[in-house]
Amino acid sequence: MLLMGGQSLASDKPPAIPIGIDLAKTGPIISPLLFGQSLENTRYGVWRGLSAQLIANCKFAGPPRVDGLAADWSPIGAPQALFQLDHENPYAGAQSQRITLSQTHRTAGLAQGPLPLQKDREYQVRLALRSDKPLQITTRVCDQDGQNCYESKTLLVDPSDWRELAFTFKPPRTDAQARLEIVFSEPATLWVGTVSILPEDHFHGMRRDVVELMKTITSPLIRWPGGNFTRDYE
């Protein structure tokens, strides 16, 4: 007991309260649906993400950077090449990436990396492109230094509306630092609407290995998509 100002104060320690448990008495059954898993599915909510998509910002969303490029993309040919996000006639969403090259004997385009590739695994590549003139586009998948090319495709784009181009490839070795390049080498304007690289065995756009591991959890309820990602989901 403490004394303060001539008055005594009792200890603030709460009294012990006995609790008894009757093991012979049962209560109502709790539904298993009250328990589940919450999974953030935005790319890296699980290791390397639930999405099988290797390309970040594959539809060029968001505000432009200072160099005119959408987030997660790198320029090829700057400063001779001009980069802008164009809101006129987009392929998907509100905008596409516009690349303008006005000089001869130059190369312009986009790049992204690092991309994790596995040896002998088949990948599906899809692009949506349009141009202001008949234009030859080269799409390369290579190592980070550009010394070893795993796949190279030359594609012809015409000045009509959006054209979808697709091909598959199998890298000869595993490379966690691979790089994608989309380039052209003559004065022209190219619009890139979307770029996608998916492993051939993806499960509706999701990583099959993550889906198989989710099955082992045997959760009766999975919260999708989780987090504030829902505010941007359409």
SSE layout:
Elements: E1 2-4, E2 7-9, E3 37-38, E4 74-76, E5 81-86, E6 96-101, E7 108-117, E8 123-131, E9 135-142, E10 149-157, E11 163-169, E12 175-184, E13 188-199, H1 208-217, E14 222-223
Parallel strand pairs: 3-14
Antiparallel strand pairs: 1-2, 4-7, 5-6, 6-13, 7-12, 8-11, 8-13, 9-10, 9-12
Explain what the structure shows.
The protein is mainly β and 234 residues long. It folds into 2 domains: 36-52 and 202-234, no CATH class; 56-197, Galactose-binding domain-like (Jelly Rolls, Sandwich). 4% of the residues lie in helices and 38% in strands. The protein is built from 1 helix and 14 strands; from the N terminus they run βββββββββββββαβ. The strands form 4 sheets. A 5-stranded antiparallel sheet has the order 4-7-12-9-10, with no helix packed on it. It has a 5-stranded antiparallel sheet with strand order 5-6-13-8-11, with no helix packed on it. The protein has a two-stranded antiparallel ribbon with strand order 1-2. β1 and β2 form a beta hairpin. It is elongated and about 85 Å long. The model has no long low-confidence stretch (mean pLDDT 87).
Salient structural properties:
5-stranded antiparallel beta sheet, 4% helix, mainly beta, 14 strands
Can you summarize this structure?
This protein has 234 residues and is mostly beta strands. It has one helix at 208-217, and strands at residues 2-4, 7-9, 37-38, 74-76, 81-86, 96-101, 108-117, 123-131, 135-142, 149-157, 163-169, 175-184, 188-199, 222-223. The longest helix has 10 residues, at 208-217.
